[in-house]
Structures are given as C-alpha cells and as structure tokens.
Amino acid sequence: MRISKLFLSVILSILLLTQTSWAQMASTEALFEHPVTLSPKEKVMQFTARNDVAKILEQMDVDPKMIQKRVASMTDEEASQIAHKIDTMPAGSSAVGSLIGAVVFVFVLLVITDILGFTKVFDFTRSVR
C-alpha cells in the first residue's frame, strides 16, 4: 500500500510539472505583419456594435445612432479612458465568482481525501479503509 501511494504521488507530481507546447510553422508574412491598431474612438465604436452589447443597450432603450453621435463628440482622453476600461475589465464575471469556485474546489478535494482515508478534516465523512 505504501508503494502505491508513493507511485501515485510521483506520477501526479510529474504530471503537474510537465508543460505541453505546440509547434507550428510561421510564415514570413505572419512574422513581419504589423498589428492593426485602432484609435480609442474606433475601439469604443466596435465594442458598442457587438451583438451582445447592442442587445443590452437596446433593452435599456438606448438608440444606436445616439451612441455613435456621443462617441464622435468625445474627446480623445475620454475615449482612451473608456477603451482602457474595455481592455482591462474582466470578461464574464467578477472575482467573487472565482473565489467561490476556488472554495468549492478545495472543499470537494478535502471531502474526497477524507473519504479515501488520506486526511481527516471533516467529522461527517467515513473513511473507506
């Protein structure tokens, strides 16, 4: 039994420390291609033109033509601040969701190790051994 635990821990540590890399051929055009940079106003316009954003704005009774007029009347500083927020805001959810997910993961992990008999953290579990 002791050897199987040692073997399992060695295999798991090797799997956790290995990294997978993917190689592919890169063409000369792809290497020397210059990325297209957008002005902050164009970035805000593209963001408001996305289907999901347009749908939310439509639900809020905001006219798309009014959005275009307001973005066009913004100063460069205002547009760059909004473009920076668009680039730096997390996609999807807040940090609270990530924290809850981490707590649930640790709880499930500890319950499984309690049931397998490796730890004894919770009183409501019984070891398989």
From TrEMBL:
The keyword Signal applies. Residues 1-23 form the signal peptide. InterPro entries: PA2779-like. The chain crosses the membrane at residues 99-119. It comes from the Bacteria. Keywords: Membrane, Signal, Transmembrane, Transmembrane helix. The keyword tRNA processing does not apply. This is PA2779 family protein. It comes from Sulfurovum xiamenensis.
